């Protein structure tokens, strides 16, 4: 199996010490920095916007993996690109964008790596026609909107089916999993075909970030 990447989710960091938190997880072995953008519309809560992404970028050396849980991402792709996003992940649901194919093509044109996000309630068929456009498929393993929720094991067949579909088509995107991931869940998610693990509370909630990241890496 391929080497797994670990992406700590900044949502669970101490926002009063954001720069220190980013540097600490990078030193602890983070591969990507996962940045959750919430607009209070696609999901109930609001997190932060491009100015905070810009601040995160100043403290980070690893790629910023920016997860847009917002309506009409097409309206702000350039703002996030300019703020320093390396990857732009857009939700596939029509409640976010009604022109998914166009948005993903646009992300590529802007020079970012495109990713498509699929929620627990969304069937695989909904994203089958865009798999060739993306570098990353992000499978939500909780319902989006909050950190600290429990992993939904019923998403494992979805991960496996997506990996199979990509293999059949000769595509090799990253399959990233987001929500409730810890050292106990990663064995099953990696076995199903995931190779990037997002973890918020599992890392920032741990007393030792290095140990938390190593535990996830060893389990995968
Ligand atoms: C949930 C966010 C996640 C969240 C994960 O809507 O997309 O990235 O921060 O947090 P944990 O790892 O605590 O489930
Ligand atoms: Zn996320």
UniProtKB/TrEMBL annotation:
Q: Name one Pfam family in it.
A: Ribul_P_3_epim
Q: In which pathway does it act?
A: Carbohydrate degradation
Molecular function GO labels: D-ribulose-phosphate 3-epimerase activity; metal ion binding
Q: Which domain of life is it from?
A: Bacteria
One cellular component term (GO) for this entry is: cytoplasm
Catalyses which reaction(s): D-ribulose 5-phosphate = D-xylulose 5-phosphate
Sorted UniProt keywords:
Carbohydrate metabolism, Cobalt, Isomerase, Manganese, Metal-binding, Zinc
* Enzyme Commission code(s) on record: 5.1.3.1
**GO biological process entries:** pentose catabolic process; pentose-phosphate shunt
Q: Which metal ions or organic cofactors does this protein require, according to UniProt?
A: Fe(2+); Mn(2+); a divalent metal cation; Co(2+)
Q: Which PROSITE patterns match?
A: RIBUL_P_3_EPIMER_2
On whether Zinc is a keyword of this UniProt record, the answer is yes
The cross-references to SUPFAM superfamilies, in alphabetical order and at most eight, read: Ribulose-phoshate binding barrel (SSF51366)
Briefly state the protein's biological role. Catalyzes the reversible epimerization of D-ribulose 5-phosphate to D-xylulose 5-phosphate.
PANTHER family from the UniProt entry:
RIBULOSE-5-PHOSPHATE-3-EPIMERASE
Record protein name field = Ribulose-phosphate 3-epimerase
Source species taxonomy: Bacteria, Pseudomonadati, Pseudomonadota, Alphaproteobacteria, Sphingomonadales
The gene for this chain is rpe
